[in-house]
């Protein structure tokens, strides 16, 4: 074949300029212009820094290259020898936005310029992403990139209380953040299940508070625990080590010390700072606990301020996170000291008492030259004057903060909680609930639509949260965080008009082997085949949309028993696999992607779904009122989509209401009926209660209804059926579902409006 070579060279030199294809960078840069040729990265390269200031960044780059090359490149203050160079330089011309950089690669040299060290560091990350995997000949394509972040706060959170992760993993996690240009690490250090930071003045916080006698096993609400002692904490020396490690990667560590709620571990160690005085245990189970810091006791404030003083000594960042979420008010209501405080301070309710706690702490923190940030509950009862809000219960908290001139970091459960499921729960490790795919994260827009431009500037950015109730190991943290973190990194860095889901997915697929090569356990739920039913054109028929997040591989599907049928038509829409099947009878569907040769799935297990048809399935249905927006995905059709919702709840399977609902189904024609039923969920720890009753009536004309009776169900945990068994003829069936009203005493959320969750209607 040797003789072909000159011909090829001839061809390529005749052709117009052969610019390199755009490399698959994550996050996608602001601007990239490709050029011809390559810069060879060999041990002969010198890294040149223009000032001592860049020594840390230069060494970082040298150390990374040393792992790829036979010998580490030289790091020099200025050019002293001939040969290829990577030059890092700070430019003070004022043109470059904060954290921005420009990267210019020619066959002879690489110039990386920024106005700050962080920009140089981000540019180095881009350069590293351009390098081919270890073992191949190392060269990077010639190009020019100018780049800067869209948002200042690009965060990831890690809960080390519910499960503890040692310093080595925390550093790996920080490396992962750095790789995708994230710049805030929110370290959730204290909670009911363990206090994880050494405080010299209060040694019992870690002697007692860092250890629990067992841990919850399995899902919430079952009351099952093991009796294996569990715990751990970071010494102050280790904390300093982590803070320095992060700082070298231009990541600010934001420590969180929870108050006034989520305090059981602290109170187990120092019960005197509670209202009742204890004794308390470090909690084995997950949830929200009634005992909190006593707001009426001045010694509580001395304690919290002492703790925060040590914390501020360890963490140099601007913000200290003081928690503030999920603080029950029961113990304050029953505490003479708390009530006296409310009286002396003129506070009208316990929300204002919570606000008093936060404002008093804020004053202390501000006096030390720092600021507080807290979960959006700190808005209740009045926001502290200089506080920033982390909006987790939706976006309303962030909106309220920004409208009143307070900074906000967006972290809504809907898009930013990476403890939620990211694939079909049947194929995923047990998670807390929810359903947040990598595509959903990518679709997130951090600036809420209702903010005007002058308010939007208060949105600092957003953050992905990794709560670890159900995340037991470092591998599982990686699985839950990656690739969703990569999607969020691009949301936060890349200009809005340069975001493109299909393009991101393609780059992500090219990133998977690199993640694997560096030992990161990324989730491949991207490769799941999603099966989503919708109302068919004809009543009584369901159209099944099968889709995957990628066009790779062949989709195999199986309806009922029998052989797998490869989808030979391979319908690709907008770069992704998509197909619609029609269903008009009960059956089982499986769908999965394979590589094109073998008959096995390659990346992700098959998605399975059973469909049960009855007289109501895929018939015309209305609900008055419509379900609450939070629990409305799929609309009223969800109640007749042939799928019986499972106990293991993802939000898409159930519809939710906060009031009575009337449901009407048109069966299409007069039918012989012997059974009318509907399913409801009993999950009181999630504030979901069974309806009081379901009144059933029938009609032949859709106008005049005659009552058939009312159904009640046994309050079993999980799914219950409300059923009427009577032989009648009718075309229309109406169900009036009576909401349970306020949550009774003795249940979580007592006194609040309960949720009514409904799913499949059965008519036989
Ligand atoms: C939270 O998820 N409780 C902030
Ligand atoms: Zn009290």
In short:
Strand 10 and strand 11 (194-195) form a beta hairpin. Residues 1-16 have low confidence and may be disordered. The chain is 23% helix and 28% strand.
Describe the structure in your own words.
The protein is α/β, with parallel strands linked by helices and 764 residues long. It folds into four domains: 2-147, 2-Layer Sandwich (Chitobiase, domain 2), CATH 3.30.379.10; 164-523, Glycosidases (TIM Barrel, Alpha-Beta Barrel); 528-611, Immunoglobulin-like (Sandwich), CATH 2.60.40; 620-763, Galactose-binding domain-like (Jelly Rolls, Sandwich), CATH 2.60.120. The chain has 18 helices and 34 strands. The strands form seven sheets. Strands 8-9-14-15-16-17-18-19 form an eight-stranded parallel β-barrel, surrounded by five helices. Strands 1-7-5-6-4-2-3 form a seven-stranded mixed beta sheet, with helices on one face. The longest helix is centred in the middle third of the chain and has 18 residues, at 350-367. It is globular. The model is unreliable at 1-16 (pLDDT under 50). Residues 325-326, 375, 392 line the site of acetamide.
Write the layout of secondary structure elements.
Elements: H1 4-14, E1 31-40, E2 46-49, H2 55-66, E3 74-76, E4 85-90, E5 101-105, E6 109-114, H3 117-130, E7 139-147, E8 153-159, H4 167-179, E9 184-188, E10 190-191, E11 194-195, H5 204-207, E12 211-212, E13 230-231, H6 236-247, E14 252-259, H7 264-269, H8 298-314, E15 319-323, H9 330-333, H10 336-345, H11 350-367, E16 371-375, E17 388-391, H12 396-403, E18 408-410, H13 413-416, H14 438-442, H15 453-456, E19 459-464, H16 474-481, H17 484-493, H18 501-517, E20 529-535, E21 542-548, E22 554-559, E23 565-566, E24 572-573, E25 576-583, E26 587-594, E27 607-611, E28 620-624, E29 655-657, E30 661-682, E31 693-699, E32 706-711, E33 718-738, E34 756-763
Parallel strand pairs: 2-3, 2-4, 4-6, 8-9, 8-19, 9-14, 14-15, 15-16, 16-17, 17-18, 18-19
Antiparallel strand pairs: 1-7, 5-6, 5-7, 10-11, 12-13, 20-21, 21-25, 22-23, 22-26, 24-25, 26-27, 28-30, 29-34, 30-33, 30-34, 31-32, 31-33
The structure holds acetamide and zinc ion (ZN).
Zinc ion binds next to helix 10.
